[in-house]
Write a structure and sequence with these properties.
Blueprint lengths: L5 H9 E4 L5 E4 L2 E4 L5 H9 L10 E4 L16 H17 L2 E3 L9 H7 L8 E4 L13 E4 L2 H10 L1 E4 L3 E8 L8 H12 L7 E6 L1 H4 L3 H9 L8 E3 L4 H7 L9 H12 L10 E6 L6 E3 L7 E3 L15 H11 L14 E4 L1 H4 L2 H11 L9 E5 L3 H9 L2 H8 L2 E3 L19 E4 L15 E4 L2 H10 L10
Parallel strand pairs: 3-4, 3-6, 4-5, 6-7, 9-10, 9-12, 10-11, 15-16, 15-18, 16-17, 18-19
Antiparallel strand pairs: 1-2, 2-8, 13-14
Helix pairs in contact: 2-5, 6-8, 13-15, 13-16
GO molecular function, one term: isomerase activity
Cofactor: [4Fe-4S] cluster
Pathway: Amino-acid biosynthesis; L-leucine biosynthesis; L-leucine from 3-methyl-2-oxobutanoate: step 2/4
């Protein structure tokens, strides 16, 4: 297996066969499901009188439509309640492990699987959610899939997929104070574009990535999809193994030693051949903020919103649309832009280390008058751990609301929504039109610490001014 990338090795190990279409039939080791994309898939199984082939390889939770303030059942939203009941019944019928609200294990699907050790190196993972690429941080190959593909995995534990090319993205050097994993991935997407990764898997590497924690690596891999890549991954190393050891579903005893040996063997070979290699210097990355309606429309916080002349011809139409929708003037600073809502959470930045870092900057400060600010833990476990450290008290003292676990204001499928043309400073992953629940609502993506700075000052702020 010399000259092979991790992607090649994992793909080969999970190939069941080649279909007449030329696609690979790929075995899926772990299938994660939630309440939004699974009801129709289960209905398709019922219509065909099919069972779930390997229920022990499927794990369910609820996250997208879950309210983060009042979680009393039945939910006020009747459609949300129907989706909850549908998943509860389907999991019972097919004997699928289900982490419901109050189980102590509920949360955003891409937070709970890693924290329980369900996500492991060398796995193939699928979920009916775009940001399944998160799990690649462990050296897994993880795909977001559509509802009909959810059906296919439930029924056959396989997917029909085209093999991807592999682009190695190296980031080397030390990040400056105030610059985080979120800034790194926004900088990469800004540079390569939202379509730059189409047809590729992204292998994230370099000394900067090697020095990152697992939670930081998850932030990077989470947004691979926003750069057009089908998946993103980091080769497993000691950081990965230290994170996994002792977790609920991680191998134990002798099995652990065997597992680590196997995981080391699937790392990309030192002489691996890539379809493309791109390199970044960490020292050149600044706190980054999106100004437009795609995650690729980002700038350093101290830069000006680009003028049409500074934008490539192919991107100008989207830029014109963004200026109008966001109510921004080209050539003006993003810094100082007034914010209405500040949100810390999501599968990108709702983990314990995110909340710890944000709390450091919130401590002793106050949310500006007229700003609604709230913090949503990515899982029930994260919430309990944060409360044990007193992070909830720090946030509440600063004027942030402290909520129950869920996807919350990352998207508009629960009660946490923007109103009118409110502008949101968000630690989530998408700034599309209407993404946060209002047809006129505007979203600026940034790191959790930058969200705190915006909440306290009431305007977009360069957090480096606080250092």
């Amino acid at each position: 297996m010399s000259e092979r990338t991790l992607f090649d090795k994992v793909w080969e190990l999970h190939t069941v066969g080649t279909l007449s279409s030329g696609q690979t039939q790929l075995f899926i080791g772990l299938h994660l499901i939630h309440e939004v994309t699974s009801p129709q898939a289960f209905a398709m199984l019922r219509d065909r009188h099919l069972k779930v082939l390997y229920p022990e390889r499927t794990v369910a939770t609820v996250d997208h439509i879950v309210p983060t303030d009042n979680q009393a059942r039945p939910f006020v939203d009747t459609l949300a309640e129907e989706m909850m009941q549908s998943l509860e019944q389907s999991c019972k019928t097919h004997n699928i492990r289900f982490y419901n609200i109050g189980s102590g294990n509920q949360g955003i699907v891409h937070v709970i699987a890693p924290e329980q050790g369900l996500t492991q190196p060398g796995m193939t993972i699928a979920c009916g959610d775009s940001h399944t690429s998160t799990h690649g941080a462990f050296g897994a190959i993880a795909f977001g899939i559509g509802t009909s593909q959810v059906r296919d995995v439930l029924a056959s534990q396989t997917l029909a997929l085209e093999k991807l090319k592999v682009r190695r993205i190296e980031v080397n050097g030390e990040l400056a104070p105030g610059v985080y994993a979120k800034d790194v991935v926004l900088h990469i997407i800004r540079t390569l574009g939202v379509k730059g990764g189409v047809g590729y898997a992204y292998e994230f590497a370099g000394s900067t990535l090697e020095g990152m924690s697992m939670e930081e690596r998850m932030t990077i891999c989470n947004m691979s999809i926003e750069g057009g890549a089908r998946c993103g991954y980091v080769n497993p190393d000691q950081v990965t193994y230290d994170y996994l050891q002792g977790r609920d579903f991680a191998p134990k005893g002798e099995d652990w030693e065997k597992a680590v040996a196997g995981w080391n063997s699937i790392r990309s070979s030192t002489d691996a051949v890539y379809d493309d290699v791109v390199k970044f210097n960490a020292a050149e990355i600044a706190p980054t903020v999106t100004w437009g309606i795609t995650p690729g429309q980002g700038i350093a916080v101290n830069e000006l919103i680009p003028t049409l002349e500074q934008i490539t011809e192919t991107d100008r139409e989207v830029a014109k649309e963004a200026y109008q929708y966001m109510e921004f003037t080209p050539g003006t600073p993003i810094q100082g832009t007034k914010v209405d809502v500040c949100f810390i959470g999501s599968c990108t930045n709702g983990r314990l280390s995110d909340l710890r870092e944000a709390a450091k900057f919130a401590q002793g400060r106050k949310v500006a008058n007229g700003v609604k600010a709230f913090v949503v833990a990515g899982s029930e476990r994260v919430k309990v751990a944060a409360e044990a450290e007193g992070l909830d008290k720090i946030f509440e003292a600063a004027g942030f609301e402290w909520r129950e676990a869920g996807c919350s204001m990352c998207l508009a499928m629960n009660p946490d929504k923007l109103q009118g043309n409110q502008l949101s400073a968000s630690s989530s992953n998408r700034n599309f039109k209407g993404r946060q629940g209002s047809a006129q609502g505007r979203t600026l993506l940034m790191s959790p610490v930058m969200v705190v700075a915006a909440a306290v000052n009431g305007v977009i702020t360069d957090v480096r001014e606080w250092l």
